[in-house]
Amino acid sequence: MSIDTTTSVSLSVRDVHLAFGANRVLRGVDLDVARGATACVIGPSGSGKSTLLRTINRLIEPDRGDVLLDGRSVRGDDPDALRQRVGMVFQQFNLFPHMSVLRNVTLALRRIRKLDADEAAALARDHLELVGLAAKADARPAHLSGGQQQRVAIARALALRPQVMLFDEATSALDPELVKGVLGLMAELSAGGMTMVVVTHEMGFAREVADTVAFMDRGVVLEAGEPAAIFERAAHPRLRRFLSQVL
Ligand code: ADP
Ligand code: MG
């Protein structure tokens, strides 16, 4: 795969706090991802993983703390500009059902990158080809498999030329036989030098692809390190218990 990742940047999450009412969901999260590196975030349901991703591209404003791209705070960035720099892929794809695959990809290119119709269509076709779906450009999302829909969602995010990509359980809604294709695409993207934060229950992917694995529990990163350190030499009992349940 050939994606332009020369613009990838480093990502730092610094002491991020967020409460929903009395529910303190993030309680001082720190995470560092080097330029071109992949961090996998693992942890139990409700530990704040999705909320963390949403604070990184500022779908939610943290109560305290900061997010830095290449050392510079994103606080105060225009939300559209930030969403272009930080792409996000969700469990439920979030494609527009009434639009063709091609239009799903061109929409943001026209609105956010302000490309004209021909430029947007050409770039969208390039990215659909990259994810193996050039032939589906005119189809509606409902006529694609879940795995194909997720690859369209990835193409849509990549076409904006993000500097960081966030994945929130991107394969959790897929039938088992479709998971591999999407994980393979994500692994290629990682190998190609994209800076990525991947929330996942796929421990095999975390072990093989991640540069760093971060274990979240009750709103903090309890332990982070190289995959071998996390999977074979976990220090924290809560992490050891979690791994014994999921491996
Ligand atoms: P995870 O992705 O690790 O399962 P989440 O970040 O989705 O965890 O959720 C963490 C906690 O935040 C949960 O208790 C959840 O109910 C709560 N939460 C998430 N989003 C909202 C919201 N928009 N409003 C209120 N509470 C929320
Ligand atoms: Mg979640």
Automatic annotation (TrEMBL):
Organism: Micromonospora echinofusca
Pfam families associated with the record: ABC_tran (PF00005)
GO molecular-function term, one example from the UniProt record: ATP hydrolysis activity
InterPro entries tied to this protein: AAA+_ATPase, ABC_ATPase_HisP-typ, ABC_transporter-like_ATP-bd, ABC_transporter-like_CS, MetN_ABC_transporter-like, P-loop_NTPase
Family the UniProt entry places it in: Belongs to the ABC transporter superfamily.
PANTHER family given in the database record: AMINO ACID IMPORT ATP-BINDING PROTEIN, GLUTAMATE_ASPARTATE IMPORT ATP-BINDING PROTEIN GLTL
Record-given protein name: Amino acid ABC transporter ATP-binding protein, PAAT family
ABC transporter domain residues: 11-243
Cellular localisation: Cell membrane
GO annotations of cellular component type: plasma membrane
PROSITE patterns: ABC_TRANSPORTER_1, ABC_TRANSPORTER_2
SUPFAM superfamilies per UniProt: P-loop containing nucleoside triphosphate hydrolases
Bilayer topology term: Peripheral membrane protein
Keyword Cell membrane among record annotations: yes
Keyword Flavoprotein: no
Keywords assigned: Amino-acid transport, ATP-binding, Cell membrane, Membrane, Nucleotide-binding, Transport
